Amino acid sequence: MNTSSNGYVPPRVLKFQLGFLLEGTRGQISETELDIPRLRVAEDVTVDFLRGQLRFSRTSRGILVQGVLRTAICLECSRCLTETSVALEIQLEELYLAQPSPHAEFTIGEDGILDLSPLLRQEIILETPIVALCKPDCLGLCSECGQNLNEGTCSCRAEAIDPRLAALKALRDKLSKPNQ
Ligand SMILES: [Zn+2]
Ligand SMILES: [Zn+2]
Fold first, then answer.
1. What is the pTM of this model?
2. Protein residues with C-beta less than 5 angstroms from the ion ligand 2
3. Distance 12 CA to ligand 1 centre (A)
4. How, if at all, do strands 62-76 and 83-97 pair?
5. What range does the domain containing 175 cover?
6. Other Cβ atoms closer than 10 A to 89
7. Are residues 111 and 172 in the same domain?
């Protein structure tokens, strides 16, 4: 498969020529298997891969798209900011109208092309978690120096806590020996 210069498959692979299905009878089905590596779904959405089965069904008004697709997107870990791959499952069920309509969100082009890109972009954005973690027990960054605590400790913590501990210890010593 051809990839563009930045290493992503361009979104035109999400355009399906379904003119034959539009000319078919109601209930006619066409199925296709997707297995696309690094894909640019839209200008602002890229995925590490896109896999799964798509089903296009001719209805009286257009073409019903159904499918369960597996994909993964790259997000920044909310704690340590490291880029991390997050798996998503995308459930598609959307009617693309054959005739343009002011109420229709998705329509099939006059050339018989169904463009999955805007629908997929919308579903991926909806499924994208607000908080992502590189691992469940990510230790995050030190609030003082920014050290990634998954990769090693820094000296901030010891320096920040020691003086307070010393003061507490002195106070406790004093309270426990009231008669001295
Ligand atoms: Zn992390
Ligand atoms: Zn630190």
1. 0.77
2. 142, 144-145, 147, 154, 156
3. 34
4. antiparallel
5. 139-180
6. 10
7. no
